[in-house]
Write a structure and sequence with these properties.
It is a single chain. The protein has 149 residues and is of the alpha/beta class. The protein has a single domain, classed as D-tyrosyl-tRNA(Tyr) deacylase (D-tyrosyl-trna(Tyr) Deacylase, Chain: A), CATH 3.50.80. 20% of the residues lie in helices and 38% in strands. The strands form two sheets. Strands 1, 2, 3, 6, 7 and 8 form a six-stranded mixed sheet that branches. Strands 4-5 form a two-stranded antiparallel sheet. Strand 1 (2-15) and strand 2 form a beta hairpin. The longest helix is centred in the last third of the chain and has 17 residues, at 99-115.
Length: 149
């Protein structure tokens, strides 16, 4: 399971011209589910996301988590994070999980973050979404449940 985590001042998802989710200060997460991922991957990555200390404290040090600042998370499923373009210009997506199990693990990831005390808003699975965000910093962190990076 892979995630692109961005510290934001705001983020939103629009589907067919209608805004379906929006947050203020917090994290925008793009999540890709890989073949072979399990609930343990979702739980690990949720914990890592919620505990990631990328917000400044009173000394301007990145020392606070999204939970510490009372922020929210906007989570969007994005299978293209598993795209492999190493051997060609057109990425292959053979490592991306099939839609039904991917959605189950995506939902589990979001539920786990909520259990850890963070408000989570979501995009709409398997739709064309327009994602807007204001990256604060910019701060962008890549996470991988297999610890590949």
């Amino acid at each position: 399971m892979r995630a692109v985590v961005q510290r934001v001042t705001s983020a939103s998802v629009t589907v067919e011209g209608e805004k379906v989710s929006a947050i203020g200060r917090g994290l925008m997460v793009l999540l890709g589910v890989q073949k072979g991922d399990t609930e343990k991957d979702a739980e690990y990555l949720a914990g890592k996301t919620v505990k990631l200390r990328i917000f400044e404290d009173e000394n301007d040090k990145m020392n606070l988590s999204v939970k510490d600042i009372g922020g929210e998370v906007l989570s969007v499923s994005q299978f293209t994070l598993l795209g492999d373009a190493r051997g060609q210009n057109r990425p292959g997506f053979t490592e991306a999980e099939l839609p039904e199990p991917a959605n189950e693990l995506y939902c589990r990831y979001c539920e786990e973050m909520e259990k850890l005390g963070v408000t989570v808003k979501k995009g709409i699975f398997r739709t064309h979404m327009e994602v807007a965000l204001v990256n604060d910093g910019p701060v962008t962190i890549l996470l991988d449940s297999k610890k590949n990076f």
